[in-house]
Amino acid sequence: MKNQMKHAVLFLLATPAFANLSPIAVKESALKYHPTVLAAIERMHAGEEAVIGAGGAFDAKAVSDFRRQTKGDYSSTVHRSFVVKPLRVANSKIYAGAEQVSNSLGKFSPVYNTGNPVSTGQVGNYSVLGLSLSLWKNLTLDPSRAAYKNAKYDAKIVSSEKSLTELDIARFGQLAYWEWVTAKKVMNAYEELLKNGESRNEFLEARNKKGDISQILVTENEQYVASRKGALQGAKERFLRAEYALSMFYRDDKGEPVIPASTESYEDYPSSLEELLSKIDLNSDIDELIKRRPDMKNLALTLDKSEVDLELAKQDLRPQVDVTTEYYQRTQANPTMPRDYLMVLAQVSVPLERNLGNGNIGAARARRMVAEKQMSYGRQAYKYQVMALRKALFLQLEQVKQSEIEFTKSKELVTAETYKFKTGGGNLFLVNLREQAQTSAEVSFNESRLSFMNTLLSYQALVSTVE
Is the whole-model pTM more than 0.85? Predict the structure, then answer.
């Protein structure tokens, strides 16, 4: 018995408690399962992998070549094998390996045989150590280093875009929730309005049968009922759309959209929006926010990329002066062959026309100017958006208060007019007018709360930063 009770307690503890549908639940679901967020995460991973790929330009490589001189006095075979390691400085690379020179006829170039020109067979093996670097063009930057720098900038950009996507999806998800709540309340208001009209219709028909009122009053009320049915259909359509829109953010553990049940319990609007607003930071320094905002960081990173492109373009106007040094040491050879020797190769290339360089530099400068203007405008727009939303929040809060007052007064008028009508002191036209005014005020009250929440969510997303 004790074991059964123990298992029962454990079962209850393991079973999650029922929770109302809430904006936080929708937000968490969207951040975990929404395809846009998942795609942003994959783009971030792709950017990280692209950095690794760009760094692959500096991977060590095994290189081999084979040369055969088939005619002439110094016919020979040269086989070279090296391990080459590109370096991230001065467009340089180092390499080490071996060179094998041989000939069965026995007559070799003096570079391979200085002391015994009639020897036959293999001349010798040499170990080789080499260094190649640029002294002018590509000294400060070359295509491989530029690609690596830009890949790192791109990785940071897509990482920030992932953060921006999460902020947007969290905001859109919560806004979809409040639209769903508002649409449900609006639909309920029109349902109540129609219900009152239909109840009154039954009351009027009964009085008409008794001869207490004329048929014209019944017809007039039927007109109001028809109008209210039309308004209800519009409200139902809005609620239907809100359900499906919410399901795009509210998903199950398989990532599939979930349409809330008609009986779903939910978190209502806060009783005090003013208290909610008091918990929001409205005094942060905007310039400090700009420094930490992911979208502002991306504008700066785009400018950095344009600087890299401009520096790379400038290389096209510079003369190319590349130097290669190779040190050879004999490992097996005729004793008359040199024990070691050093070879130095200089390659010089000077552009005689400047179309390539000038065109690339001009295009790169134009792209940099675009990036500068976009960053300048982005900062200005961000600053003014923050300032505008801060003021709009207080104005919309006041609008909510006035809408609530209007709704409260309209309910009082309906109560008074209904009582007058039932006691014979009022008229049908005023009763219907008061009821419709009450419903309009109720809808306006809910719409004003929705607008406030939209502005509040937009402001929170706008001032969110990524360290």
Answer: no
